[in-house]
Structure prediction request, 518 residues.
Amino acid sequence: MDKDRRRAASKRPSRRLVGGLRTRLVVTFVVVALISAVTATALAYRDARTAVLQRTQNSAVDDLRERVTAVAADFDIPPDQGSLSRFAAKVSDGIGARIVVARYQGLTAVSDPLAETEGRITVELRAAVMTGDDAKFQRVRWRGEPYLVVGMPVMYADGDRRTSGLEVFAITDLRAERDDTAALLDSVRAGTVPVVLLAAVLALLAAGTVLRPVRKLSRATRGLAAGDLGSRVAVTGHDELADLARTFNESVDALQASDAELREQEAKARRFVADVSHELRTPLAAMTMVATVLEEDADQLPPDAARAARTVGAETARLSRLVEDLMEISRFDAGAVRLNAAETDLADTVRASLALRGWTDRVRTQLPEGVRAVVDRRRIDVIVANLVGNALRHGAPPVTVTLGTDLAADGEWVTLEVSDHGPGLPPGARDRVFDRFYKADAARTRGAADDSGQGSGLGTAIALENARLHGGTIDVTDVTDVTDVTDVTDVADVADGPQRGVVFTLRLPLRRTGEDTE
Prediction:
């Protein structure tokens, strides 16, 4: 059993995929860091751009208001074109490099005669200045470049807040502010790459810290699956992973204790069966001799006494066979069985087994000559006796034994089929037909077959163990599940209706002298 667990664990495929936990942790860290960096960049750009533009427009509005108030104190209304041009020039000189446009009714004056202003002062801003009594501003794009346009009406200084009809507009170039915010955005964007790289490094470190105990637990689990009950995980720390490792160790401790207890009980049971079987051999030998004497003299006894003597003889023989089977099973369980293998003609072996038990006339055979293999002749005889006896006792004629060979992908095999035409196996019996003492039919007085007319309940189990000892196996199939299992030519031997029955197939590796018989 331990070897089977280790073999299954060794065949289990590795699952170190690209999308493992480490990769997912790193990707998650990087994505979170990238989203955070992009969000911080967007917020920083928005706030910086808003602050720069707010500062610029506040400065432009305040400068224009102060300069217009100072210049308008000496300005006469209504103006002519010359005075309006001088007014625009004075306002422009006081507020720096801005283009100033002064409008009064149908007159327009520009501080820079070469500057084009029509596309930069919108109709909406003019309407807002004309109807308002304070400074208004608007950011516009003209020829792909950003500008801030501030406009305000000139009020009379008599305290009635009346507009004089004079309107002043200042155009400020925002390209410097745009370049400043763009430079800030580039700086923040350039800082995103190191942030993402740092997040990836931190993710790798964190993944290593988290996954190291997980890998240790995984190795311990694989060892446990392979049958190593001594596999343990070192417990470090007091976090959830440490609790998991501690729970794993406690579970394995309990499993190991249960396994040790079960093994001890199993060993005691095997020793008990072996001891009982051994102790029964001596009194059974004496009982057999007495029963044989009684059977020999049964014809001289009264009818009731003769019948009792024959019954005692039959039951004593059956009990002797049961003891022998129990001792054989005990040897298999203890691993004390060894093959006495030699190259053997299998057809001769089968014929000799049938002849020894007087079954030659009751069994059809298809035994081609020349099929030789390295086997233990005595154990093959036990297998044939058990399978054929089972078919004769529980099946119906014709019982057929077919010897052949089979070339498969895993090598060449010897096959020996034993088929009958009985009622077949009950539902669910196929999976348990090789169990010890299993009775496929509750109406039968005995279970699995042996080499006699009555079963000890261990025959098919012993046959399977002998097959496995040779590196082979025994399969069982209902005839109704397969086609052309046997060559049935004598319809008189088969009951009318659908063909039924059971086929036991012994498969042994075909080895000859000089080949590995392990």
